[in-house]
Amino acid sequence: MKSLYENVIVAGFGGQGVLFIGRLLAYAAMKEGRNVTWIPSYGPEMRGGTANCTVVISNEVIGSPVITSPNALIVMNNPSLDTFEPRLKTGGLLIMNSSLITREAKRNDVRVIKVPANKTASELGNDRAANMVMLGAYIAHKKVVTKENILEALKKYLGEKKMALFETNKAALEKGIEIGSL
Amino acid sequence: MKKVFERPKSMFPVPTHYCPGCGHGIVHRLLAEVIDEFGIRERVVGVGPVGCSVFIYNYINCDMYEAAHGRAPAIATGCKRMHPDLIVFTYQGDGDLASIGTAEIIHAANRGENITVLFLNNAIYGMTGGQMAPTTILGQKTTTSPLGRSSKREGYPIRIAEMLATLEGATYIARVSVHNPKAIIAAKRALKKAFKIQIEGLGFSLVEFLSQCPTGWGMSSREATKWVEEKMIPCFPLGEFKVPRSEKPVK
Amino acid sequence: MGEKVLITGNEAIGEAAIKAGCRFFFGYPITPQNKIPEYLSYRLPQVGGCFIQAESEIAAIYMVFGAAGAGARVMTSSSSPGISLKQEGISYIAGAELPCVIVNVMRGGPGLGGILPSQADYFQATKGGGHGGYHMLVLAPSTVQESVDLMTDAFDLADKYRNPVMVLADGYIGQMMEPVEFKERPQKVLPTKNWAIAGAKNRPRNLIRSLYLDPEELEQHNLKLHRKYLEMAKNEVRVETYLTEDAEIIIAAYGTVARIAKTAIKMLRERGIKAGLVRPITVYPFPYETFAKISEKVDNILVVEMSLGQMIEDVKLGVCGKAKVHFYGRTGGMVPTYDEIVTQIEKIVKEEVA
User: Which residues of C touch A (CB under 8 A)?
Assistant: First the structure.
């Protein structure tokens, strides 16, 4: 297994499904035999009114599950960008939801990917799948988990009750991967 | 010669530590008689209180817990949930049940825990030396209400039986007295009924015993029984306050 | 190897309790541990167990007393202010020698404090939070997997010593998800509970009490408890050492902070500072010996806690003046970061050179 140490903060407002895609990522990483930690917006991170979670993925034993300067950021709205952009590691990856974020990134020492997540999800017929578009863009870049394992995680977490949402979420993920691969 | 009187088998053959004229000994004996008459000693569990009757375990020969002050109903709950087939009773005084343990007794009753509570109300804290109880009656002098209990300063005596009878979870609630033979006979009848309700799995039962405390009240034994009759019973009327749905309460 | 599941610490603690044979839970809601009672409220009935949401933490701990006294495998969980309310009952449980497990998912205090993670209940947990001079065995997990493993051990240890065992977690462990394996473990042979309340049939009656008015009798009882604590200290101390072999400076931390320290140690080693970690897993009994030995090899030990310094007192007792003991802590729900720990260590190293 290739050596791997990745950490990412996913942030947005409540209802955008940021904790959900964090869980999908964590589950997929577990399926690939990695160590993984997932922490929701609890702890000092809770201040500021943004919902967020931190996911750490590694081949080795994971030390801190709390990350000061993440390698990657997935931000869904303006307040999350304001809060977390300064903390992104130099050379890190910033994936921002350009459908809702109205300003440019301030950092010029990081890689910025703009994803029109809400617009894309809306075109696919499921406004609420913007989070999946963002996750797709992220795994396209980072390749820390496979699409297949994300889909397996999606099946598990949607459960039978919400399985009707699987196809649009899958489509959103794939569209995100496409956007992220450009 | 025919034996006409003996110590109940469920009582250890030891003298009690209670003061002359105290009602605890009578209630202990009624308890032991009821246990014997049902033949359930081997599956009875008692939970003792903190207060004068803290040493009840020295007198009643069955498995027992000694509880913290006021917590007997919670301990009884834990035990009964573990062993639904055992017959679990708590024995509590007025400080234990009606003051520090109000939350525990209300919620045990409200959950309809299938236990039996013996509540001894003597309107005073005996063990600690005669301080005011939640059931001390208006005008009654104690070491912490030396001018006599005043509703303005100390509030009113709490009527536990009436209060608990309002709870849907409670099955049987009665108040009796042990200040004369007639009252004692009625008290035993109520206690037996309370245990029967538990044995039949019908739910929470509580018997409040009005009891004399000559030492705490600063009276002779005879004066104390008179005081129960004249002062306590008017404040705490006797009778059944809640009975199983199929019955009518005896007043 | 069994299959791994991704699960929060709180839920993992609940499931581990079920797997350990716990069938009784009594508790009262308080953040940030509500997932434990929520989880057990649907899991326990599935396995024929009993869950009661008590009227208060006080009632809950005495329901534990009642069930433990009746021979049950029983637990409660709470968070700091709720654990304070349970202290009276814990003292009675220790006095009456009843086995049970108490989980404290610590949050910031004092008073109502906050709901964010903390380690400020160390003194309360290890030094007898209630009255009368007793001890619990206190296990401090650092990962979700370890929470699971220690929960099983907790019930066995409680039965082995007839003593309350506390699992001392912080809010992070409760909230965090990690892959966990519920390992099949061989059943331990444990003493039979012939002292338990079960009805006095064909035996003298049993009595569960902590009341001994005769001073000589109470002294004998306390000496018996004391011998038990010494036995625990002899047999049950658990500690993890991480990169201590060649270490020139040691960090002492437990729980989540110990994980954060591991990341700091990696960073320090990349910068040429050989740091290592000593992580007490049992905080009572405390691994004094480990600190005594390590202080012969290093000159400096940095204690890091989510409090303003509690475990440091035990570290100092172990070190016994043979090394300098430094402290860094955050409190109130603030968490020491690995960057901060690195800075602290670099400062100590610099001062040493100067």
Answer: 4, 6, 32, 116-117, 171-172, 175-179, 256, 259-266, 333-335, 337-339
